[in-house]
Amino acid sequence: xxxxxxxxxxxxxxxxxxxxxxxxxxxxxxxxxxxxxxxxxxxxxxxxxxxxxxxxxxxxxxxxxxxxxxxxxxxxxxxxxxxxxxxxxxxxxxxxxxxxxxxxxxxxxxxxxxxxxxxxxxxxxxxxxxxxxxxxxxxxxxxxxxxxxxxxxxxxxxxxxxxxxxxxxxxxxxxxxxxxxxxxxxxxxxxxxxxxxxxxxxxxxxxxxxxxxxxxxxxxxxxxxxxxxxxxxxxxxxxxxxxxxxxxxxxxxxxxxxxxxxxxxxxxxxxxxxxxxxxxxxxxxxxxxxxxxxxxxxxxxxxxxxxxxxxxxxxxxxxxxxxxxxxxxxxxxxxxxxxxxxxxxxxxxxxxxxxxxxxxxxxxxxxxxxxxxxxxxxxxxxxxxxxxxxxxxxxxxxxxxxxxxxxxxxxxxxxxxxxxxxxxxxxxxxxxxxxxxxxxxxxxxxxxxxxxxxxxxxxxxxxxxxxxxxxxxxxxxxxxx
Length: 481
Hints:
The protein is α/β, with parallel strands linked by helices and 481 residues long.
């Protein structure tokens, strides 16, 4: 099922294979996520395969994730193929259409497979969704197209792991079940010997060996799944950052750099009553700016944000959150909603965003201009990240603002650039400013986020080597079982 840890297991295997002298690459035929990434070619892909590419020490490529679905509503998604938007589809429309994307999937897979080995293929959700099996292109359907053996992962932390694994196997066709060469119990806490009777019965009933009982691991790595427990955190620390969690929130990995710092809390807020008195409010990216701006207004956030600003609090908007901080958002072509719709924003910046059909996708780097307010020490420092948005934003003079790294008004700031906090120098300016404001000693990050992640991939590989039968995994890879 979703969130059992497939992405991390795949990333860990990528790192192990790389350490052992192979040339692995990750692959996921179809990903559904609002958390995406822009490659150096300006193409869009899911973040999970970016993480796995890093684990394999590769540059991320859309070949690793040829289809990305970005939900725009409860019944529809933006469909991205080979990194390019092909349009919006309702769920039924896409269900009927997706088999036509098999050539795109296999083209990407074959290019990867010609260059790398082994290919570590991640499934999506459950391989036993019997209502979706006919047109499956990501689970057992993908395993069939790639003629790949399968390892089935279950999550014991949420309960019912034996039913998960045995029930899944029962719902597979005989030829599909033959592909399953190993079972993994993930997120285990406690004494493994207590689990042994269950493992024996699991193996006896399934006829498939349990190749690993992996403990619950606390890793500082990007999460893609909307089921992440980050949205449940409520504890306030010395420096408190509140991220407004509107319904179509996207790219929350923008704030990973602040996660895990002992004296810093990052809380995801769904109502003004949860805000309390944060040091910094962040308006994050969104897949539907107009819809989420309406939600922000209807739920009473405007007054809370204005009150925060009036008290000298730091406000930072990224991408769609930055668009909300302008005077007006216009949708003349019905990109996000009704044709010709207009909605007033927070009016913090004298800017108007006009939504248009073309999506801007580019990596960005440069230096800030002079910065005023609480973040003045960002002035002339380096930044990098990526832009991914619909629409263009213009000032009172009707000129486009593209290329401007940071907008500011008092202690309010906005940018189109995702990942702008990832540079430790940028994050540390923010942390120091908030620490000084609170009369605290310097709170800072000691290394850049890429080095942190690289260390975490090594930690992940060490855990998998200890708790999985890697020799047996290699037998699976080599077709010996």
